[in-house]
Design a protein that fits this description.
76% helix, 5 helices
Length: 136
């Protein structure tokens, strides 16, 4: 059954799903173009291609997961926890690539967007915890 008590979080997770779908639309379905756009070099190694595409595949799967959380933000907390950890780890890894000079500044769009979602996810967890919907 859908939980309608948290409309802001429904919108938040629909937005997170859309963010992931947009990213996966580029990264999974147009892998070489996305890689070249972020790293200013061609993706020619077949192993790197599969690994990079697989990372975007995970992003695509969380599109579905975030839609589940949007439908019922109380029931699907576990998906949000795993997704939030993934967003944080991915943003940190992408920032490291930029700071080491391996990626260009376009990657900062991903970094900033994912960090913003991390902050909003923390608010979501704190709100559910304060409403006694989340126990630690």
């Amino acid at each position: 059954m859908r939980n309608k008590n948290y409309p802001f979080f429904t919108y938040l997770f629909v937005a997170a799903a859309a963010w992931n779908l947009i990213g996966a639309g580029f990264g999974y379905f147009n892998t070489q173009y996305t890689f070249q756009g972020l790293f200013d070099r061609e993706l020619t190694d077949p192993l790197f291609y599969e690994i990079y595409k697989g990372a975007w595949g995970t992003t695509l799967m969380f599109f579905i997961g975030y839609l589940l959380v949007a439908y019922n933000p109380v029931k699907h907390i576990g998906i949000a926890i795993i997704g939030g950890i993934g967003k944080l780890a991915f943003a940190i890894a992408e920032l490291q690539l930029f700071l080491s000079g391996l990626a260009n500044s376009t990657i900062l769009i991903i970094v900033v967007g994912d960090f913003i979602f991390c902050v909003l996810f923390i608010y979501y967890f704190m709100q559910l915890y304060s409403d006694k919907k989340l126990s630690i």
